[in-house]
Design goal:
132 residues; mainly alpha; two-stranded antiparallel ribbon
Length: 132
């Protein structure tokens, strides 16, 4: 009976023992590597959408035809962990959604920049010069 009690106490103390520093560092490094991998995958998806915008239709039908401003607001409403099943094991994951959001924000920024440049050019080319 005493042996059983000692084994139970030993298991109890093993469970209460704090994790080692090496284990904590390994967990931290693994989490950092996972974050880096997710960022790389997201950027790759955004680049793929920039090259072939029709691939956005895999996430939601008609998404490639939206303007960047509307696309950003629409993608914000979608759940970040959402996935769309197509059957036979194919799905559109959260990485694709985040890549689409990155692409949409980039497109919106480029569109806004072009609009600002057009306004500047319009102001620079004054069709009615002022009289002195």
């Amino acid at each position: 009976m005493k042996d059983h009690y000692d084994e139970a106490m030993l298991e109890y103390w093993v469970l209460r023992k704090p994790p080692s520093i090496a284990l904590a560092r390994a967990v931290e490094r693994t989490a950092a590597a996972a974050r880096r991998t997710a960022v790389i995958a997201t950027k790759e998806r955004a680049r793929a959408y920039a090259i072939r915008p029709r691939e956005l239709d895999a996430i939601e039908d008609g998404l490639s035809g939206l303007s960047p401003k509307i696309m950003v607001s629409y993608l914000r409403t979608m759940h970040p962990d959402a996935s769309r099943w197509f059957g036979f094991g194919a799905e559109s994951s959260a990485i694709n959604l985040r890549g689409a959001m990155l692409y949409a924000r980039y497109s919106r920024a480029i569109q806004h920049q072009e609009k600002r440049l057009q306004v500047r050019e319009f102001k620079a080319a004054d069709p009615w010069p002022r009289r002195k």
